[in-house]
Amino acid sequence: KNRAEQLQELDLLKSKLYANIAHEFCTPLTLIKGNADEIEDEHEGEIAERAKSIVHNSNKILFLVNQMLNLSKVEEGGFPVRYVQSDLVAFVRLIVDSFRDYATLRNVELHYEPGRRQLMMDFDPEKLEESVSNLLSNAIKYTPEGGEIFVSLRMPDTDHSPERKIEISVRDTGIGIPEDQLDKIFIRFYRVEDKRFPYQEGTGIGLTLVNEYMKMMNGTILVNSEPGEGSEFVITLPVTQTAPVEKEIRLKGTFTRIEKQVVPQFKTTGIEWGLPRLLIIE
Ligand code: ADP
């Protein structure tokens, strides 16, 4: 019992430490990004390109920091659900569209199949954006070139229950997940170790957050997967229409703005024509 209590205490301390570190990173990073943004606007050519690269990389770290901060907010109960009533079909389309550049860059085809024109319902835009973005970013990340991703909306048959539900499915033709790991991927910091794909960046926080958000919104998240064939993640949410209507919702964008990787262009000096040339690719 003592040991269990100690472990629990240690876990709490660890969470606090992560949250504190994430918090400490936030302000300096935002300042670095802001300055680099200004330099990019004020200059052209190589300087602007380098500034762009700083902005891009700051965005990547800010994305992780935000994920960690949100997870600690959820764990402390300081991230309440804020419902609005709006068109889910249009909202999910906005999220999918914000990933089109990233999908093109990775040579993956992205399809959106809403199956209906409109669906007015209550949802928390911030949490839903983050959830669908996480699933989409994973789908693109774990799908090799030439693969496909389908985002669809489905109304499951609920003849036996008066409650209407909607499913948001994100299916990919990617590397898949071994069956014995399917229940573990929702655990904080858990990542599948696949030696064939050793360079996939990630922290193992994304799905934990989605799972927590779903619990807060009376929803669920399920996964089906076949290694080598692909995966399907399905979010199910209750359809209610009681919150105040908000016609147009903008994306927050913190989790979706994955810009193209900018590689700074360096000028070559003093090319001696006629000599053999060596191209070094890093
Ligand atoms: P991260 O992607 O940052 O590692 P997540 O919590 O989002 O963290 O995902 C946990 C793990 O689940 C990932 O490390 C990956 O092994 C696996 N996973 C998630 N989505 C997919 C997917 N679409 N295809 C294959 N594996 C996936």
What would your notes on this structure say?
- Helix 1 runs antiparallel to helix 2 (45-75), helix 2 crosses helix 6 and helix 5 (125-141) packs antiparallel against helix 6 (206-216).
- The model is unreliable at 256-264 (pLDDT under 50).
- 24% of the residues are buried.
- This protein has a five-stranded mixed sheet with strand order 2-4-5-7-6. A two-stranded antiparallel sheet has the order 1-3.
- The protein has helices spanning 2-42, 45-75, 88-98, 100-105, 125-141, 206-216, and strands at 84-87, 109-113, 120-123, 148-154, 165-172, 220-226, 230-238.
- With 282 residues, the protein is of the alpha+beta class.
- Strand 6 (220-226) and strand 7 form a beta hairpin.
- The structure holds adenosine-5'-diphosphate.
Chain-wise SSE layout:
Layout (H helix, E strand, L loop, with lengths): L1 H41 L2 H31 L8 E4 H11 L1 H6 L3 E5 L6 E4 L1 H17 L6 E7 L10 E8 L33 H11 L3 E7 L3 E9 L44
Parallel strand pairs: 2-4
Antiparallel strand pairs: 1-3, 4-5, 5-7, 6-7
Helix pairs in contact: 1-2, 2-6, 3-5, 5-6
Helix amount, in percent?
40-55%
Question: In which order are the strands of the major sheet placed?
Answer: 2-4-5-7-6
Kindly provide the radius of gyration, computed on alpha-carbon positions and rounded to a whole number of angstroms. 22 Å
The number of E-state strands comes to 7
Topology as H/E string?
HHEHHEEHEEHEE
Largest sheet: 5 strands, mixed
Distance between the termini: 53 Å
Number of helices: 6
Cofactors, ions and other ligands in the entry: adenosine-5'-diphosphate
Assign an overall shape.
globular
Low confidence ranges: 256-264
Overall mean pLDDT score? 88
Helix/strand class: alpha+beta
SS strand fraction:
15-25%
